Amino acid sequence: MSDPLRILIVEDEALILMQLEMLFEDAGHEVVGTAVSEEEAVALAIETRPDIAFVDVRLKDGTSGMKAARAMRDIAGLTVVFLTANVRMLPDDLDGAAAVIPKPFSEKVFGAALPFLEECVRRPPPSMDRPPGVRLAPWYLERIGLRAAQAAAELP
Amino acid sequence: MEPAEAWRMTDSLHAEHGKGDPFAAAIRATRMAMIITDPRLPDNPIVFVNDAFCKLSGYDRSEIMGTNCRFLQGPDTDREDVRRIREAVAERRDIAVDLLNYRKDGTSFWNGLYMSPVVNEDGEVLYFFASQLDITHRVDNELQIRNEKAAVERQVVERTRELTEALAAKTMLVHEVDHRVKNNLQMISSLLGMQARTIADPDAREKMRMMLDRVEALGTVHRQLYDSGNVTRFDVADCARELVTDLVHGSGRNEIRLRLELESVVIAVDKAAPVALMLNELVTNALKHAFPDGRAGKLVVSVEPDGADVRLDVRDDGVGISGRSIDPKSFGQRLVKTLGRQLGATIEWLPADPGTRVAVRFPNGAGKEPVKP
């Protein structure tokens, strides 16, 4: 991989955190930090300046991944992707996050999601199709130029 | 003819001048309390009172005559009722009002008052005539009914609140359980996935990966059930789209093209898991055996309703049944057979020339439920 993504994982379930770390590193990316709480997540995001943060919505001691994501919005160049078992609890605009990957996810979903997200971050608009396991926020679709491309593709 | 004011002199039935007026005698003797006031005198005083009124109010005639009726009012008399009476007097019209009045001994009673002006030929109001009826019993009944109604309404409000809270608690519980089930499924697949990475033997690792696929297929079912917002219905097409796309992409076999022909079929929720697992087995099987040695090809998965049945087809243009090395006693094959039995399915393995077609057909249990109007 020419330009591996620098990734922050925010997940309070230790096993899932460990699995994600393995998945990302196997795919050649660099995990720059792992956090289990809101406070830790924000501090690490500021310190490590990752390209992508995968953020679980429910965090340790009842803290909120959504609040953490809100605090991360101001960090330049950081794309936030939610991981959650409660997709329906999220607002349509994902509260400023770019995408959401619903739990439970399969390893295959990440296998497809990582190259796609890498293109979204590094070379938008992405050339590959959006994998079924990833949902993008409307504002992000527009940001990476997918909305226009989609509209064009739907023309007769 | 007696003068018009003759009744004034007839307070006693034996009075000389009143004897000739049977109406005055009747009013004096009736059980209905009655008074007459004279609005032409200062403060509209009472100028006639019958015995029934004295009995009702507890006052002697001498205490009543010449006073204004307001002596009947007391601390709990409704000021608004009093205002309406005053208004009627000022406007010279009749009025009926239920009024809380007080007797001489301080006890209260509900007075069903009816008051009307007595007008002469010139339109001048000479008197006000008022009758009083003790309606305490009726008003008490009304109040009691009103109180009971209010109590019932309070109970309804309270019960509604309880039910609303119970529903909210139940909904929260369902969310919580859903969340935990998803998290647990995620952890099971995490464990399998991580363990698989560490297995050196390719065959054993492959088997662990296949087990991971099965757990992940169950995860897909659960996610789709709860994300749809309807936990009683399950669309096979939605499930197939996600599951099969995942499997083919996840296989890393870019030389195998996937074609999905999916028509929406809603099935009963108890069939969701076996259908997803069946689909997982059939597609995994095709990916593994139909295209050996990096052989390119096409995989077609179709889902469609067929009357009361659901049809599910997995078709490949690979090496064909004869070319496949399928062990009928393998775990995967036994799994397909068992799931088929649970679904009441017929499963046919057919040559597709080239390749193989697996045709599955099972009754759609969703139709058995009564249709709500």
TrEMBL record, chain A:
Pfam families: Response_reg. The modification 4-aspartylphosphate is found at D56. It comes from the Bacteria. InterPro entries: Bact_response_regulator, CheY-like_superfamily, Sig_transdc_resp-reg_receiver. Keywords: Phosphoprotein, Transcription, Transcription regulation. Residues 6-118 form the Response regulatory domain. Gene3D superfamilies: 3.40.50.2300. This is CheY-like chemotaxis protein. It comes from Methylobacterium goesingense.
